[in-house]
Amino acid sequence: MLDWKKGKVNPFLSNIRARLKTRPMPLNIFQDKDGLPRIILTEPTGTSAEVLLYGGRVVSWKNERKEELLFMSSKANSKQSKAIRGGISVCFPQFGNLGSLEQHGSARNRLWSLDRDPSPLPPSDNQSSVDLVLKSAGVDLKTRPSSFEFRLRISLSAGKLTLIPRVRNTDKKTLSFTLSTSNYLSVSDISEVRVEGLETLDYFDNLMNKSRFTEQADAITFDGQMDRVYLRTPTKIAIIDHEKKRTFVLQKNAMPDAVVWNPGYKKAKALPDLGDEDYKFMICVDSAAVETPIMLKPYEEWKGYQELSTVSSSYCSGQLDPCKVLYGFH
Question: Whole-model pTM?
Answer without folding.
Answer: 0.86
